[in-house]
Amino acid sequence: MTQISLLLSANEAYASARENVADPRPGRHLAIVTCMDARIDVFATLGLHLGEAHVIRNAGGRITDDVLRSLALSSHVLGVDTVVVMQHTKCGLAGVTDAYLREITGADLGFLPIDDHAAALREDLELLTTKDYLSPLKVIAGFVYDVESGLLDDVVRWERPT
Ligand SMILES: [Zn+2]
Fold first, then answer.
1. Fewer CB within 10 Å of terminal CB in the chain, N or C?
2. Cβ(71)–Cβ(56) below 8 Å
3. 13 CA from centroid of ligand 1 (Å)
4. Residue 154 contacts by C-beta under 8 Å, 6 or more apart in sequence?
5. What's the angle, vertex CA 141, arms to CA 143 and CA 85, rounded to 5?
6. Nearest CA to 141 among 32, 28, 45, 62?
7. Model pLDDT, residue 19
C-alpha cells in the first residue's frame, strides 16, 4: 500500500471508533506550542485528551508570527488563558546556525536555531508576554521535554500580575 492509502484506511477504523467533541473551545483553556519532532506525542506526554488543548507545532516549537496569529485567536475567540511552550532535547534546531540551515535547505529564512533551551524559552516567553493583544493569557510556562526519558524539565514560568 502507498503511504496515502495507508492513511485513508487507518482513518476508516478511527472514524468508526472515535467520540465526537462538539465544543471547539479547548476544555482545559490551554494551548501547547511545541516542535514538529516525530518523537513527541503531545497529548500522551502531558496527560491531555481530545478537545482539551490547542496544539501548535513548528520546527523547534518557537514563537513565530504564525504562532502569534494562532494564539491571538486561541485566546480571544476560543477561551485559552494558559500557554505551554515545549522545546525538547536532541532537537534538530539545537547547536546549529542559521547560516548552516540556510545552506543545507537553500532557503533564505530565519530558522530560529536554539543555542540554549533556557535562553530560547525566556526569549519566546518575553515575546508572548509583551504582545498587548495576548492580554487574555494569564499563565505561560516553558518546558524542555527529554525525548529519551520522556520527562519534562520545568524551566520557566510567567503569571500575569493582578
Ligand atoms: Zn525539535
1. C
2. yes
3. 30
4. 141, 143
5. 60
6. 32
7. 86
Distance CA 136, CA 141 (A): 15
Cα-to-centroid distance, 113 and ligand 1 (Å): 10
- 127: Cα separation from own chain's centroid: 15
Q: Rounded to the nearest whole angstrom, what is the distance from the C-alpha of residue 147 to the centroid of ligand 1?
A: 10
Angle at 138 between CA 62 and CA 94, to 5 degrees: 15
- Express each pLDDT in 33-59 by its tens digit: 999 999 999 999 999 999 999 999 999
Q: Is 122 exposed, middle or buried (0-12, 13-18, 19+ CB in 10 A)?
A: middle
Beta strands 139-145; 82-88: pairing state = parallel
44 C-alpha to ligand 1 centroid (Å): 17
Please tell me the distance between residue 36's alpha carbon and the centre of ligand 1 in angstroms.
6
Between vectors from CA 50 to CA 47 and to CA 55, what angle results, nearest 5°? 80
| E strand residue ranges, the chain | 30-35, 53-58, 82-88, 139-145, 152-159
The pLDDT of residue 143:
98
Give the Å distance between the CA of 64 and the centre of ligand 1: 15
